[in-house]
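Input/output pair, single chain:
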Amino acid sequence: MVTSTSAQLPVPEHFDAAKVGEIWRVPYQRRAANARDWAARHGLRPATQDRTRIALLLIDVQNTFCLPESELPVAGAVDDNTRLCEFIYRNLSTITAIHVTLDTHTAMQIFHPVFWVNELGEHPEPATVISIEDVEAGRWKVNATIADNVFDGDLAGLKTHVLHYARRLNEGGKYPLIIWPYHAMLGSIGHALVTSVEEACFFHNVARNSQTRFEIKGGNPLTENYSVLQPEVLDGSDGKLIAQKNIRLLDALLEFDVVIIAGQAKSHCVTWTVNDLLSEIDARDPAIAKRMYLLEDCTSPVIIPEVVDFTEQANEAFQRFADAGMHLVRSTDPIGQWPGISA
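Output:
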């Protein structure tokens, strides 16, 4: 039984729920002063003094996924993030550290349109599913003009890789290769954290003297990287590694007494991150699963109207996580009332 020694705090006056779906500049100097005053008013101690160490892992809470007019919006994300900001503020005295993942892409990646062409030289539309049969039959093939940029000019090797990649996804029980809209582009507004969430993290930084840890993922052009802990495919057609597990982050998270997880999207980057986390837990000590808490009301699945709806897959995955010992909780309930935690 983990003990939570701190009561919930009020939400600071500067937080404006109406702005969660907007982009704006955080007034850092003013907010830092507010955070210092808030810490003094509520007797907040530096996070290094926490007896129960609690990590909050925020997965891809970025404009590209969370704003209604963005590149790949997740329905429900604005409401999720409103609850998430309020959760951070109310539990400032309890959250020891915040880890933030950032999906990070460039144009020429295996899941973006420019990577592929059909016999007419046309690129696939977003939401196109490219199956192993499509690759084998040549219905979709590598855009030869990008080989210099992603495979050292070895077009034959790149063609071999995409066939291997499609097979690996099929064999591994992964989602099939889906062509996504250009999203989370490095250097773009879409790549940035949702402003209100960034502000809440910054406020926590100063109030608790705890630096947010940022984790970049998704830059490998040869594989999707839904999970921050490892990409969809680790090896190339020659058997050599094209990527590795993020053991450093795994070790860091598993050192905490409690790990709380939220973010976007429930069906993809959240599910696959938690899935990889659970696999590692099972290999080390299945009892560790009881230290994991999933904020069900701060995440939503991918739904593309009239194309695909991943709600069922997301719910099935979360039920599997619960069956393994993880806790499905709501941000609006005090941490001290969560199962396995006493106030």
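Residues 1-10+40-66+75-105+183-262+290-301 form a domain with the Rossmann fold fold (CATH 3.40.50). Residues 57 and 182 are 25 Å apart (CA to CA).
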